[in-house]
Amino acid sequence: MISMNNQPIFQQQAIPGIIGGLGPLAHIEFERLLLALNSTRGACGDRQHPIWFLINATDLPDRTQSLLGNQPSCVPWLVKYGKILEVAGADFLVITCNTSHGFYNLVQPQLNIPWIHIMQETVRFIKLHYPGLNRVGILATDGTLQAHLYQDSLTAAGLTAIAPALNSELQQDIMNAIYHPIWGIKATGVQILPPPIHILKTAIKWLESQGAELLIAGCTEISVALKLLDKTSLIAIDPLEIMANLTLDLAFGYENIPEISSPLK
Predict the structure, then answer these.
(1) Among candidates 240, 244, 238, which has minimal Cα distance to 41?
(2) 179 in helix, strand or coil?
(3) Which GO terms describe its molecular function (predicted)?
């Protein structure tokens, strides 16, 4: 039990370490979810919310451009900030950026605390809660798609992954919805403008036409924007919300912190 001045704080068992700032909305939405979901669990008052450590790591190279080889590797930054959180007392690591998980195999062996893998946990959630569904749509960055982060995890679980082809017009539009310097979600922050909304609606219609049954919002900016869209026939899966619930479970001891895993194949 963690205590301050010998007073228990909502029976917390472990401290999450969060690397945020990838992009500007990533950890803001994640922290909002932590507070909102914990409140639905009965927390009332600041002392019943968990302690967590957070680094706003805005100096990392762009994760997609790094994976594509157009910018320096993100590995040194992720290792540095992971170690800072580790030394501060974090018991496990959460990184609120899907694309950053392309560096997991190079970063995790250099840390002494486990990095909770967003793709693995999202697929575990789908298998547990939607066992009868198979065809899973993915909307994500070029880096996440090229690294096959969701595709490999879904395939390993016996599920079918559906995503726009790299370099397709639709995928280029999705990248613009995220990165456009004027109206992209990374540029406008909490104010989501009409062009990204229109693009995501078009992308969802395409996934529906391909027979997708579920939709993974495989980028934090997409997670934020999807909340503004009308309901569709697809079941929307928000990895950020899955990770927030799991973070609370780990922090309060409802689930055991996983051991540090071997590099993913």
Answers:
(1) 244
(2) helix
(3) amino-acid racemase activity
Bond before 102 cis per omega within 30 degrees: no
Q: Can you say whether residue 23 is alpha, beta or left, with left for phi > 0 and alpha for psi between -120 and 50 degrees? A: beta
Cβ neighbours for 211, distance < 8 A, ≥ 6 positions apart = 135, 162
Tell me, what DSSP letter sits at residue 40? H
Each residue's pLDDT tens digit in the chain (265 positions)?
343 444 444 699 999 999 999 987 788 989 999 999 999 999 988 889 999 999 999 999 999 999 989 999 999 999 999 999 999 999 999 999 999 999 999 999 999 999 999 999 999 999 999 999 999 999 999 999 999 999 999 999 999 999 999 999 999 999 999 999 999 998 987 789 999 999 999 999 999 999 999 999 999 899 889 888 878 889 999 999 999 999 999 999 999 999 886 666 5
pTM score, two decimals?
Answer: 0.91
Residues 6 or more apart whose CB falls under 8 angstroms from that of 232 comprise: 204, 208, 215
Active-site residue numbers?
Answer: 97, 219
Please state, in angstroms and rounded to a whole number, the distance separating the CA atoms of residues 152 and 94. 20
Domains in the chain, CATH or no CATH each = 3-117+242-251 (3.40.50.1860), 119-239 (3.40.50.1860)
Determine the 3-state secondary structure of 37 from DSSP: helix
The C-alpha atoms of residue 196 and residue 221 are separated, in whole angstroms, by 10
DSSP character string of 211-236: T-SEEEEESHHHHHHHTTSPP-SSEE
